[in-house]
Design a protein that fits this description.
The termini are far apart. This protein has a three-stranded antiparallel sheet, with no helix packed on it. It has a two-stranded antiparallel ribbon with strand order 4-5. 0% of the residues lie in helices and 11% in strands. By secondary structure, it is largely without helices or strands. The chain is built from no helices and five strands. Strand 1 and strand 2 form a beta hairpin.
């Protein structure tokens, strides 16, 4: 999974989840405690048409980064999610899913 970013105890943002398996892409990251909090889109489900014709689910996109694309075929590892908070794609045939994108916190100073 992508890491969590924070600004002291004021606000935080989780990274996207790594892809789980052929049937489950990773969840997008989520912000909390800020004035504006974004949540990334969840990953898509995979499909298996035959024993050799498989596709993993694509990772979900966030406001700042795209999700990992789905893989075709057998024995394919997942693709990492984009920064910031993008979910990773799942894998096929028991391979590892991709790594979720890191979270991000943006702080704006007003004068």
């Amino acid at each position: 999974d992508g890491g969590t970013s924070s600004f002291a105890s004021f606000c935080s943002a989780t990274g996207g989840q790594g892809g789980r398996d052929q049937n489950n892409g990773g969840a997008g990251g989520a912000g909390s405690g800020g004035s504006i909090n974004f949540t990334g889109q969840g990953g898509g489900a995979g499909t298996a048409l035959t024993l050799s014709a498989k596709k993993s689910g694509s990772g979900g996109s966030s406001f700042f980064g795209g999700g990992g694309y789905g893989k075709h075929g057998s024995g394919e590892a997942g693709i990492a999610g984009g920064n910031y908070g993008g979910g990773a794609s799942g894998a096929t045939d028991g391979e590892d899913g991709g790594v979720g994108g890191a979270g991000a916190v943006m702080v704006m100073e007003y004068k």
